[in-house]
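Lab channel / #folding
Pinned by the channel admin:
"Please post every new chain as: sequence first, then the structure tokens as a reply. Keep commentary short and put observations after the output so the thread stays searchable."

First post following the new format, from NK:
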Amino acid sequence: MNKISFSQLERARQNPIAFAKSLADDKGGTGRYSKYMAWQNSVFHYHKNRGDLAKAIKYFESTFLKNFADNAANQVEREDWILELQAYTKDETKKRLTYVEHKKRLSIAMNSELRLGGELPLIKMNNKGGYSVYFFSRDDNEWEDELRFPILQSYIATTLYNVALNEVEVGVYSIPKQKHLQRSYSRKEVRIALDELDEVGSQIASAL
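Reply from TO:
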């Protein structure tokens, strides 16, 4: 069965036929370890250590020095990423979010040929007693119109936690804005998104 990752869904949505060809041509492989990835792992380390920022910073510095050259430019960038880590924890506290888990793996069947899958980077309890799920974002692009968000809200509510749809929020932690951004989609919006996912999946499957 072919897999579409959450991050690939918009590309699949824009041109299902071309995306089907890319699946057939995909040779696999992983990208290089980046400073952004090191920062994300430090966020996870922060949560694994019950919100200990000092341990998260120490982990980040150690990981950074192990993987990247110790030069003037990287020293500046390392300090910038540490400031971003501090900003992340500050906004989490401000929003009164409570960590639940990270890197939760999901697999959602689209049809007999395809599944939608990947990881939920961060799951938290919000101050309304519901769940908030966040991806990381390094840009200021509009995220609310992405198909993955209402799809994931529905799956998390109905399958993962068995709660009402409006008890789940989905969104991003925006690094440029240094804020957790989230929303809850309506039943109508979710239904439209699920119908579109079915159509996209059918077009891809027919082209495989």
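NK: The mean pLDDT is 95.
TO: also worth noting, The first helix runs from residue 9 to 14.
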